[in-house]
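User: Sequence in, structure out. Go.
Assistant: Echoing your sequence, followed by the structure tokens.
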Amino acid sequence: MLAQAVHQTWEPFVLVLGLLLIGDVASNDGLFEAAGSRMSRLPGGSVTLFVATMVLAALVTATLNLDTSVVFLTPVLLHSARSRHIEERAFLYGSIFMANAASLLLLGSNLTNILVFSGSGVSGATFARHTLVPWLLAIALTILVVLVWGWRELRSKPSADHPLHPEFVLGPGLLGVLAATVCMLISSRPALLVLGFALFVCVLDAVRRRGVRFADLWRSANLPVVVGLFLVATGVSVISRHWHLAQHLLGSANAWQTAGLGALGANVMNNLPAAALLSAKFPTHPYSLLLGLNLGPNLTVVGALSSVLWLRVAKREGATPSVWTFTKVGVAVTALTLVAGLLSV
């Protein structure tokens, strides 16, 4: 049973490690900062800037995983707002709500996607075809909810001064992003491919900089957190296989009940252990389960690793995230995106 559990859980954690390493190299190349600066220079007001940065967050989430998006893009979004003297609350909460909402598109966009589909043989392209419409709806509705909530602040006229355009170095980071995206589209098991490309671009980055940044890589990869969650998810998977919990919970559940169990599990125990618990046996409604596991964590900050990382990054950047505000806005975000996704899946 332990071998079966490890077989289910090792891939998503190897994949997220590779994506975080690629994100670190891309960040060092100035890719995210340059994209954020471009957004800040767009014509239009605060609403235009907010919508543009949310689209950027959705694209980074889809291609480089939601945890990568939170770690590297939250500071960029905050800087975009601050550089134009715009109230940053919508950008702050939008960054995490969008990271969770936009994590439906590719197998590698969220660890839960691979946990649920481990061993199913579903290709990345087939997965993306099934999730494209729910993904688009989740993005649009998340933008709408946060926009309505922060409308009073976003109506303010931004500063006419545009920040200086940061330097972007065309280097291995962009190569890694493109390679990871292709791997996640063509392969049903992209973890080792992505990790291989990640190590390759890290070597290229080290050669270019004439040194290895072990401390920076350790911090960017969040290795202790990733390993800890891997052990928890594996343990839960072993228990589920021994007691057949998934079969009992999902055996007679319809698509809506399956999504509800996924959302409940995510907010009780975090979506990664919940995914391992509920998919020890491949579920009857796997895409509905993913809707609950990926969109449900927008209800509470304990629902996903991305939210925990977001709290750390936001505080490090001098922001003041509130758990109560997260849940207050998250109720609407979760309800609307989950219902829309279930109606479209």
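User: And one key feature?
Assistant: The two ends are 32 Å apart (CA to CA).
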